[in-house]
Amino acid sequence: MDTLRTFANRIEAAEILAFHLLEYKGRNPLILAIPRGGVPMGKVIAELLDGELDIVLVRKLSAPFNPECAIGAIDETGWVYLDPFSDELAGTDAFLEQEKSRQLNVLRQRRKLYTPHKHTIAPGGRIAIIVDDGLATGATMIAALHTVRARRPAELVCAVPVAAPESLKQVKPLADKVLCLYAPSGFFAVGQFYRDFRQVEDEEVIRIFSRRHNGGNAGTQA
């Protein structure tokens, strides 16, 4: 049995990802982080690749009576991905509509909180690299890839340190390139592959993106 590979923290994982993405350095890549765990990673990658940083807002849809279990995901437009293997967990149509409404409300609140000045960066015609700290079901990454693809980037890249093998298979057809450092057969949860997997708080996300509005390297108005 293979020894379990772990990362010290999200920063170390981001540095390793950036090394494997060096082909994009100097090509003005747009790093799109999935909050909250992907944001400090996206900041590191944007700095190391001389790129810009922004967020892509998506939320998982939770199963009834089990908020940790994802049955799909939703983006800011209301587009929904439902995991085809989660039918027995999804509950009634009424529950699904309620969950979609609840998560859309969270997305609206997060947009106001994280980017109050609403200066997003258009990915059209650019290299867009979507970053998260790992893929469990892959639902939020699928939603993120869908929403960014609709905005016509020149190249769409998915970059994660670790993923469940089955989730990686679902994601690969949706991106032009998928970079995953580790997809072990013994995958249980993203956190098992980090020695420090402390929760990223809203305050940290706000601090990172406030630099963009104040002229930092996190991006410019589009």
* Biggest sheet layout: 5 strands, parallel
Low-confidence stretches: none
Strand content: 15-25%
Distance linking N and C termini: 49 Å
* CATH architecture group name of one domain: 3-Layer(aba) Sandwich
What gyration radius follows from the Cα positions, in whole Å?
Answer: 17 Å
**CATH domain topology of one domain:** Rossmann fold
Total helical segments:
6
Q: What's the average pLDDT?
A: 90
Proportion in helices: 25-40%
State the name of the first-level CATH class of one domain.
Alpha Beta
Class per helix and strand makeup? alpha/beta
How many E strands? 8
Strand order of the largest sheet: 2-1-6-7-8
Q: Specify the overall morphology.
A: globular
Element-by-element helix/strand order: HEHEEEEHEHEHEH
Keywords: Glycosyltransferase, Transferase
Protein name: Putative phosphoribosyltransferase
InterPro entries: PRTase-like, PRTase_dom
Pfam family, one: Pribosyltran
Question: Describe it for me?
Answer:
This protein has 222 residues and is an alpha/beta fold. The protein has a domain of 140 residues: Rossmann fold (3-Layer(aba) Sandwich), CATH 3.40.50. The protein is built from six helices and eight strands; from the N terminus they run H-E-H-E-E-E-E-H-E-H-E-H-E-H. The strands form two sheets. Strands 2-1-6-7-8 form a five-stranded parallel beta sheet, sandwiched between helices. Helix 5 links the parallel strand 7 and strand 8. Helix 1 crosses helix 2. It starts with 9 loop residues before the first helix and ends in a 9-residue tail after the last helix. The mean pLDDT is 90. One of its GO terms (molecular function) is glycosyltransferase activity. InterPro entries: PRTase-like, PRTase_dom. It comes from Collimonas arenae.
